[in-house]
Amino acid sequence: MRYYQVGEEGASRLVLETDGDVYDLTAANSSVEAFGDLARAASIADTDIDEIASRLTDSAPTLSAETATDSLQTPVHADEVWAAGVTYHISEKARQEESTKPEMYLDVYEADRPEVFLKATPNRLVGPDDAVGIRNDSEWDVPEPELGVVLYKGDIVGYTVGNDMSSRSIEGENPLYLPQAKVYDRCCSIGPCVRSASSLDDPHDLEMWMTIQRDGETMYEDTTSTGEMVRTVHELVDCYTDHNAVPDLSVLLTGTALVPDEGFTLRDDDVVDIGIEDIGRLSNDVTTV
Amino acid sequence: MRYYQVGEEGASRLVLETDGDVYDLTAANSSVEAFGDLARAASIADTDIDEIASRLTDSAPTLSAETATDSLQTPVHADEVWAAGVTYHISEKARQEESTKPEMYLDVYEADRPEVFLKATPNRLVGPDDAVGIRNDSEWDVPEPELGVVLYKGDIVGYTVGNDMSSRSIEGENPLYLPQAKVYDRCCSIGPCVRSASSLDDPHDLEMWMTIQRDGETMYEDTTSTGEMVRTVHELVDCYTDHNAVPDLSVLLTGTALVPDEGFTLRDDDVVDIGIEDIGRLSNDVTTV
Amino acid sequence: MRYYQVGEEGASRLVLETDGDVYDLTAANSSVEAFGDLARAASIADTDIDEIASRLTDSAPTLSAETATDSLQTPVHADEVWAAGVTYHISEKARQEESTKPEMYLDVYEADRPEVFLKATPNRLVGPDDAVGIRNDSEWDVPEPELGVVLYKGDIVGYTVGNDMSSRSIEGENPLYLPQAKVYDRCCSIGPCVRSASSLDDPHDLEMWMTIQRDGETMYEDTTSTGEMVRTVHELVDCYTDHNAVPDLSVLLTGTALVPDEGFTLRDDDVVDIGIEDIGRLSNDVTTV
Amino acid sequence: MRYYQVGEEGASRLVLETDGDVYDLTAANSSVEAFGDLARAASIADTDIDEIASRLTDSAPTLSAETATDSLQTPVHADEVWAAGVTYHISEKARQEESTKPEMYLDVYEADRPEVFLKATPNRLVGPDDAVGIRNDSEWDVPEPELGVVLYKGDIVGYTVGNDMSSRSIEGENPLYLPQAKVYDRCCSIGPCVRSASSLDDPHDLEMWMTIQRDGETMYEDTTSTGEMVRTVHELVDCYTDHNAVPDLSVLLTGTALVPDEGFTLRDDDVVDIGIEDIGRLSNDVTTV
């Protein structure tokens, strides 16, 4: 089951899409204003989010299919977003090519400890169809398409699509600049929906693709699979939540394997589309910040 | 003028200390519950925080001097804390010794761009006399005593003392682990007060010291001066606020020059005291998280 | 099952008492901070509050019985309290005696429409063992012990005990002064707990008693039964919720039959105890406001 | 100076109108989101609201005059609204006619203690151009046009226009029903602006008028003056704030002298316009609740 936050500010509602039918859960029960309300109720009542939602569909008005694509907002009001890096398979060939690059990436690839970092606070996070940012003091900027894990009090409750915007030029200058390359205004987007964990067979076997459009022309297009991940989702979640203060709602992005060529950098008004099988497509345009 | 947040939860108040006199500002005006209330009022009324506070002392009850040392809470409810690294003078000799260490630190030292990073969210921040954390999966843990800049909407309004707790073993393993070495449960403390910017002559000429006590024994003791900084406070603030979404209240820690010897690591129940001239002394014990 | 809010500000928790056992529900699930969290989860998950709580007892630490009597806070964070008047049986004899009093009370008694009124906002409501207020400009002040209905979004979810403090002198001077006689600082208290609606057989068959102590001496003591009510709880709830904007959590007090003699008025430091069978005892001292 | 809250939900701003010029105060300082922010800052900085606003106009963008009439919201986020009754001069002739009515109104008129009552909580309050409510179980419904006093922590900081909607049939049936006649869904509106207290010469000498339109036809039209009040604004404010818990922001409506004829009752889609000299015009249509 997929959960969307739709509508204008002040009249926002949680919408469920299942088997092509779209239900207004907020209309069914005014206590259900956001995905976090379902997650909290499921935790307290020790039941499943989808089971609660199924029961709500009995009294929920149905909406047109377009409702789940228009006026989309961030599908979960995450208190923070973390992200992981160097989590996808690197071929022997690429490893040799990488030998000209900093060794630390290969070290992380082979180490027990994954790379995770605090990626975004709510004021730096944008929703679907809103603009992600490129820093004005950066020359080389790319999106990073990633599977996002949605957590309630540290437990996996769903999945979403994430865009972990990155300044390659700043990151490349010095690894100590990584936080500046990663954490800035409009540096992250998640959406279009939350796919419930209990309705997703295997997060490690999902097709993931990204396209970048400029003035109607496709500048980048490629596909991978979350099956190429060399870490499990649980391993990354543990790395984030161990020894940490974890808020009620958070999202952990799990790294990427889709990277535009070295010659490519994002520009204002480019459109980045990221799709993950069984979850959905997250679309954002680009603006300088 | 120095501002302290004191008292128990539910009966917390903002207290002003000036020339040895201590005033209960919350008693003088119930709208003044925290330093942020003064900062916001000063911004809106286009006046100075100290000028507002001076006027409040006319009707503020005076308190005993101990009030400004007991039941201390985080002196400013910062929405986030950022920190800077490699900001203090490194001697030629040390630079040569450092040559066995990763080059990136010397690179930052000489580069135009400082190193700044997102250090703590409110749920990871502890107040004076509360316990700072060392990660259970880290073997080498140290405090970093730093001058903290207090910002209202990105403008400097005061100064405080900060402890930027760090896992040297995790950071040392791989620079990509820096966020894990820096951002975790109880990873930061600020206090004991906010010294107003307008009452502090020169933030670049303050003595700073740190001691570490274990079972009553002094394990570490050293002194430096913020005059040893090779970046200005304004330069670091600009680096944090440029291209960034900056919240109402934030603190930027400005790096350290006081570092225990390589052989030293913090243990449970150690007590870390950090003092900065004209601001105050921040004391925290240590606990494993 | 009975729900208590206990503990100090900042460390408050929801506690369940059932069959003499006391459970810390907040310790079992940190999302359960107050009775409203259970009510909301039960509404969303379409299940029963007690069923959720029963499940939580599996992992909830047990506490000593005293926990449910010490450090009591308002058991439900009601957004507002309404109250009803003239809801109890008036004997033929009393009716004749009342004939010297304003006819309007007898009119309400016989009318279809009950008397309900907005009694208290959260800032005027005090918890168990806290002081209720008597107005300094009133000469004749009495408590009114009442069965309180706890509502979530207008639906009955529990019962509590309420004290609807009243200035008889101000009310008696002119019926248009009724709001001043009823709505003022510290004018209302509820507690000690919320008894779940599903665990209470019949709200219309509960013994209710009140005592007033002064300097250790019993000034008033009497008993009645909610069976003496001439309106049903549902009728009163409908009168409150119809045509009205009803908040998430509210309490409706259902009127009283226990009234001290005309010669009696409350004084500072009097202690008012109100008990209702199967719910509990609400105790408050008295202070002038 | 007049303060308006304008714009859509999520992009609401405080706007100042003075001498025909309209300024966007929120654009000048993002800490100024609502009138309450100015009131709080003025209280803390011990200065005047208008003085703060004047300074903000230096950097505030100007807007077209229409901005202060379109997309109006409630001009002050009052935590509660109280109202007063029987505050205007009653002629000897009317008093004799009134003799057929309940004596209590004349008693209040002559008594030291005014009639004040809790009129509305925020969820029952509507803004300018929004619909006020008439109860579906009431046959005789009228608006009551009133001068509203805006209070910050009980101190007078401004004036507005209020509509104290009333069910005459329910009130007339029994004085104990007054709260039901007065407190219900959409029972109150205030607006269009807050006129600062320091810029209003004399609140007791303002022309006040009301019109009621139905299908384009004027059903009612009359004029009075606040000079006809027999209580002072301060007297009424004291009666509200004495012995009471007063929130940060509140509005006290001061009673009316403009009452439609007995034969008139409001219907759905009627439009009520209330104007007070030097403040502005509050317009609301009517809906059944």
TrEMBL record, chains A, B, C, D:
Sorted alphabetically, which Gene3D superfamilies does this protein's record hold? Answer: Fumarylacetoacetase-like, C-terminal domain (3.90.850.10)
Q: Which GO terms describe its biological process?
A: small molecule metabolic process
Keywords of the record, alphabetical order, are: Hydrolase, Metal-binding
Q: Which residues form the Fumarylacetoacetase-like C-terminal domain?
A: 106-286
Question: InterPro entries, alphabetically?
Answer: FAH, Fumarylacetoacetase-like_C, Fumarylacetoacetase_C_sf
Q: SUPFAM superfamilies of this UniProt entry?
A: FAH (SSF56529)
A single MF term (Gene Ontology): metal ion binding
One of its Pfam families is FAA_hydrolase
Q: Which family does it belong to?
A: Belongs to the FAH family.
Q: What is this protein called?
A: Fumarylacetoacetate hydrolase family protein
Q: What is the lineage of its organism?
A: Archaea, Methanobacteriati, Methanobacteriota, Stenosarchaea group, Halobacteria
